[in-house]
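ok here's Glycosyl hydrolase, seq below lol
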Amino acid sequence: MPAAVRFGVNYTPSEGWFHHWLDFDLDSVRADLDAIAALGLDHIRVFPLWPYFQPNRTLIRPRAVDQLVALADAAAERGLDVNVDGLQGHLSSFDFLPAWTRTWHRRNLFTDPDVTDGQAAYLRTLAAALADRPAFLGMTVGNEVNQFAAGPHPDPDRITPGEAERWLTRMLAACAEGAPGRLHLHASYDAAWYQDDQPFTPGHSARLGDLTAVHSWVFNGTAQRYGRTSVPTEHHAAYLVELSKAWADEPHRPVWLQEVGAPAPLVPAEHAAAFAEETLAHVLDCPDLWGVTWWCSHDVPRTLADFPALEYSLGLLTNDRRPKDIARVLAGAARRTPRAPAVRGTALVVPAAPGRRSRCAPGGDVFDAFFRLVADGARPTTVLDTRADDKDHLAARGITDVVTPDQVLPIPQGGTRSCTPPDAPS
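and the structure came out like this:
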């Protein structure tokens, strides 16, 4: 029997969203967790807001840390393991950075020695507080922290790829110092895979930390360009999982689909369950998948202002904790008997150079070639151009056929869904 894929959800509290840390109500949290556990999921990802927990560089609030531990204990009582994101950072279009890093105290988040000392102490403290909890999976350094390092952020803390790697290495070490032996990782949004000038690179994601995290959002141009029921939209999560493997040094490094959701109106509410069915079916056909964690548990309350419209309706559950159809889809997947996916023997060549990442993005030739292969019935993975002739590497991954984007037929030859943009000639 293959190892079961983990199924979980990113926990967004039903009352107060992540501002619940200001008025922490453990009874409300328990009720939320009851609703999550009832779906048959096995883990949650939790987001302490960094400025609320470390409002001063040398003050990590003990009461806030105790509340985080209480939440983790409540989850464990319901059979839910817990991953904790440390540096929040960025959530749902809002930045949460402590005052000691901004305006009159403006310092680079990734290179200033005082800031990085404070960050390391914070991550170490959270990890240590949870280290003896059996249900604690480990730390994620932060949520999509790479968005602070380049455009389109309006005020980026610019760094080089080398500086990004040094920062990640130090933060991961701080997590491991606090909680040795747990799974510690970092998480970037898809600019790490798609944006040429993004200093957080695919290699960082695929080689640093105990497993690779990918975040799949089809509002990145995929659904807009190809349509909501297209091959690229329904296979986007699987594509990111397989794309990440090109840069991994370990042939079977585990990959965590740490965020995936059905964003309206690109994925209308009435189509969300079907989108989830397709997304899960395809990503579960990826070998070495560690888990799937849906975004998110509960809808954002409509009483809260200024969120992008799509953020209010992403939950598996309503604000009064009722499951939606999309929740039933995830619950069904979690309860099915696992089946080991076959090895993917065909590999599409992708450029190793970080400055060529846009070829892998929506509209790029690598992106389009991958989905042409899928539409034609193939189950492709990816390999770096620098490894395409490395027989040992290919054999370790079970790759028997290597193709380049220019070798792939320009028009899908099979399947009922198109990977051609709706406005493109067919």
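fwiw The longest helix spans residues 113-130. kinda neat tbh
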